[in-house]
Amino acid sequence: MAQSAAPQLLRPVPQAAPADGRRVLLTTGSSDAHTWNLVHLQLFLEEHGHSVLNLGPCVPEELLVDTARLTMPDLVVFSSVNGHGHLDGLRAVRALRAEADTRGIPMVAGGLLGISPEGAEQRRAELLEAGFDGVHPDGTGPEVLLERLAELIPLAALDPAGPARTERVAA
Amino acid sequence: MTRSIPAPRRPGPPDLGAYVRAAAEAGELVVQPRMGMARPEEMAAGVTAVARLPERTVATVTLDSYTRVGDHAAATAAVRAGRPLNGFPLVAHGPRVGARVAGAAGPATPVQVRHGSADPIAIFRTMTAAGLYTSEGGPVSYCLPYGRTPLAESVAAWRDGTRLLAEESRAAGTGAHLESFGGCLLGQLCPPSLLVAVSVLECLFFVQNGITSVSLSYAQQTHAGQDAEALTALRRLADELLPPDVDRHLVLYTYMGVFPRTAPGARLLLARSAELAVRGGAERLIVKTETEAHRIPTVEENLTALRNAAEQARRTRLEPAGPPVDGGEVLAEARALVTAVLSLSDNVGTALLRAFRRGLLDVPYCLHPDNRGAARGVIAEDGRLRWADLGAMPLLSAGRRTTPVTSDRLSLMLRRVAEQHDAAARQAAPEGRHEPGAQPEPGARPEPAAGAGNGTGSEQRPAPLRVALIGVGPRGLSVLERLAARCLEQPLARPVEIHAIDPYQAGAGRIWRQSQSPHFLMNTPAREVTMFSGPGDDGPARPGAGPTLAEWWAAADPENADPDGYAPRVVYGRYLSHVFDRIVAALPVGLTVQRVPARVLSADRIPDEDGGTRAHRLRLDRGDVLTVDRVVLATGHPSNDLDGPQRDRAAFAAGSATVRYINGDSAGEMPLKDIPPGASVGILGMGLTFYDILVELTQGRGGRFAPDGPDGLRYLPSGREPRIFPASRSGVPLLARGVNQKPPLHRYRARLFTPERMGAVRARGGVDFHAAVLPWLMAEVNLVLLATRIRTAAGDAVIGEAAVGAAAAADFTERATAALADADTPLLEPLSRLAAEYGVDPTVLADFDTLARPFRGKRFCTAAEFRTALTDWLRADLADARLGNADGPLKAACDVLRDVRQTIRSVVDFGGLTPESQRRFLTEFNPLAALISTGPPAVRSEQFLALLDAGILEPVGPQAVFRSDGTAGRFTVESLQVDSSRVGLDALVDARVPGTDLRTDRNPLIRGLLADGTIRTFVNSWEGHAYDTGGLASTDSPFHPIRADGAVERSMHVIGILSEHTRWFTQVGSGRPGSWGSFTRDADAIAGALLDGAMLEPTPLAAKAGTR
């Protein structure tokens, strides 16, 4: 199945984000066709001054990694509601961590990650182990992303010779 | 496409379409769950449990997400590792396991495979190998909302998959059923009209690819009333657009958006959907469960939902039915969308691709790269889904733009139905009834009225009169010319803005555009053609005064011009553009002309800013809207839906890799280049389009006509010609036009077929053309025939000052006219007897059939024999033509038909004939008149003979029959009057010009106007009889359309081919020099009516008409 190379934008990303605005890459599982969660998160993050690149539904790992390499976002948000988020999420985060360029980009997951509530804790542990920086259980409000974004400093603010990974600022 | 594994031994589940039909006849709603488990035993158990319910159920096998996206390896790996999947991995399990699982439903319950895949081929292949032929989805509905497969790939995969399913089911001796998922799209916040449109379009796509049983889906939305309208609209459009023999039913989906969190709320929403299904006439319901909001439901929860839904349906059926629901705005919008899409291509798949590319279809909030993403749907305060932003969609009904959709608002809208039902269930008394959609939101206030200060009252200048000319070919141009000419003569009291709308070059329009073969000729001599309503003078060409085509041609291209001959159509196109430019260059103060290179997709009315007159809003295909006060419809030659045989031929060719079928309304638009050299090509119809095709396939491919052949020309082939087999009812081409011997300003004055006499005939009412009109016409024709014989028999002899022949002819004409003057019905015999006294051949022309159907009743033993007879006949006709249209008795007589056209119109137009007579007039007289009086210049007949001689042209014979030969994989044609005339064809070109019939017109604007009752077809009714002509019903001058309710639409005018049948012979593309004919008079009448009220003085219309 051919993949579209061009990521879809719900609306044009602002040329420059506000001073404390961050650049977010919004993605979902390669088998997840749901988009309302993505549309809502995009609108929400944009309303709070962040710029969002929304990859739309069914994002293959290569598209995620390629786009991440190209745009170097401050945060990758993986949102999935079809029950495969656990399986897809593992593949996605491993792919991102496998590439030197994108290894350091923070990535968080949220939504309905399994097909039933059973085993949620184990799934969470597995996902964190595989490289997610945060895994939010179903029902967590999007505000949690604002907190996480506020903790980050943009890549551009770092010493170019420094590590690629965005550092957390001590609270 | 490879063939799949043979079908299994056991008979498959019963056909879904037949099952639903039987249930509907029994008054039962069919209910169906969504259900998919990874393990075969679990899946089979679920299927069995659903089948065993006492309700009428359909069992479901829902596939998992990996199978949906074609990642069968991941599905297999998950199965092996025992990892849970969200559905049944059919492909990974294979057809044997699939058949076993479906077989668990038993012999009486249909099983539908549900999958959501943009590329269903592997799934369908496994299904058919398992003996399963019922599925759902669609090229749009399973692509745009659910993934990132390019739409073009999805359309191609669905085309192949659908064909595979259809073919395999036929091979297995059963039928396939496909349901369009188009009524669901993203589940919520998509206004119903788009859901209905996509559902209908996808089912058309299925049918075009071989499926004969379909279901059309619609998902319950936010407002019960609007949902019922949507179901009505879906039914209406399906019945209008699907072929009658295609089995169809409606399937409703219980709300697919965010579901109520409480069990009572969820039950209430499910019950509402069952009510809606019954009241809206859906035959099948796909349910949701009480736990939908929380997790994937268990089998038991699904069974409960099925029972509850079926019970609610039975209860609703016992309640009194409400009044029938009108399709309302949903129907109007859906129809506009569907017609706009279907006008993009005959191939529904291609049309869908183009529609999304242009944004004519645009799914709100859909993130797919091939979706434009400009449209927005919102829940309005009344609970209905409405458009907040239309993007480029061809709709007009969007309300005011609402506040932007924020994440909070989106979230509220997404949760609205869930919260309403949770709340309603909490408060509900046991028997309480709710109209969830109709509940106003707490604190809802009506929209504030538009600001009072926005009026235009403070402006001093009068508002301009805005006029849309829709179609700027010769007819539109003629109106513009008269408008401008009138404004030059008399000052305007208020500004007038003309919007000249045509996607092609303004002035020329589509038919006369400059991008066409230089070999196509006009069939009116250049000297008889003008677009200026008055002769040129010393001043520059301007409205009301300018050169004829011949004058302009001679000046513009002196080296190549042949002002005494027939101009190529491209030359006329250039002239028309020149006239347009001259008009625009010489506009009087106050008149402006705006060129609008676009198509109008739809039109509706809105109250104007001042709340008074209702303006027309025109939605253009380039995306914007034009608001005007007046509309002139001058859209010209129609493109119509293919009729039954044409569709069959197109389908036959589409199913073949080698055979071509070409259908188009003009040769310039036909892909004739695709016909390979040496191929056998049949041409259906031998009129003017046939000649265009002929010349394009010969001269257009490098062949030449040299002036030394036996009949005037010899053809020197290029070697790239195909073999051409033309055929028609008569078997002969149009009669050649007599060489022109009449000066441009010549006007014939009839003696017997006079306007006065025909006026009296018409005044008696209920005219029978063949009894009361045709005999006088034949008398006039014979009068000229005999008088010309008498005049020319004397040669150039002169006695004294007078030419002997002319004097004798005048004498004969006087006596013959007197002899017949008082007859009730004129006989030809007295004319013949009188003529004999002058020593000429007294044979009369008893009827036109003799001329136009020379081979009627004759049989030929071989094709060669027929061609010899045809050659002789053509030579004789050519000889007559060379004698000229004044001195050749026969061509002079035929010319009468052209000369008295206006008198014929005065009897037949606007319902002059009885219904039966008009039918005969249109089906019998009209084609004969065309054969005799609209023929091409004589050079075309010479070319015909040369091509016959060269063996390139092989006419088939009269009463030709075209067939699609499935065995040989070719078209064939044979003449019923020529033995052994059957030939196989590699290509078939339909060269008949489509007639006016609004009911099959593909122009979305015309369809929309017809559907909303702004225009209607002209139905000739008289004494209990009626004949629907298909032409646009209008008043007499100034030609206002008549609305469906019988009222006159005074803000619109119609001119030209759209009103054919209401009027006769409207396909005239030019004015004549000299005193105005109806071409110019009609245009002037419309111009006068448009300017009424914009002039300082009342327009002296009557004083002007016809006095040039």
Walk me through this protein's architecture.
The complex is a heterodimer of chains A (171) and B (1108). Chain A has 171 residues and is an alpha/beta fold. Chain A has a domain at 48-152: Rossmann fold (3-Layer(aba) Sandwich), CATH 3.40.50.280. Chain A is 33% helix and 13% strand. Chain A is built from five helices and five strands, in the order βαβαβαβαβα. In chain A, strands 2-1-3-4-5 form a five-stranded parallel sheet, sandwiched between helices. In chain A, helix 1 (36-47) links the parallel strand 1 and strand 2 (51-54). The longest helix of chain A has 14 residues, at 85-98. Chain A is globular. The N and C termini of chain A lie far apart (46 Å). The model of chain A is unreliable at 1-18 and 158-171 (pLDDT under 50). Chain B is an alpha/beta fold and 1108 residues long. Chain B has five domains: 16-318, Methylmalonyl-CoA mutase (TIM Barrel); 348-428, no CATH class; 465-638 and 998-1104, FAD/NAD(P)-binding domain, CATH 3.50.50.60; 644-734 and 937-990, FAD/NAD(P)-binding domain; 755-933, no CATH class. Chain B is 38% helix and 13% strand. Chain B has a six-stranded parallel sheet with strand order 1-8-7-6-5-4. Chain B has a five-stranded parallel sheet with strand order 13-12-11-17-31, covered by helices on one side. In chain B, helix 8 links the parallel strand 4 (134-137) and strand 5. In chain B, helix 9 packs across helix 13, helix 23 runs antiparallel to helix 24 (829-836) and helix 26 packs antiparallel against helix 30 (938-949). The radius of gyration of chain B is 34 Å and the shape is elongated. Mean pLDDT of chain B is 89; it is low at 1-9, 429-460 and 1097-1108. Chain A binds chain B through residues 1-4, 6-8, 10, 30-33, 35-36, 38-41, 43-44, 47, 54, 56-59, 63, 82-84, 87, 114-117, 142, and chain B through 65-66, 68-71, 74, 78, 83-84, 86, 116, 118-119, 145-150, 153, 186-188, 295-296, 365-370, 373, 405-407, 410-411, 414.
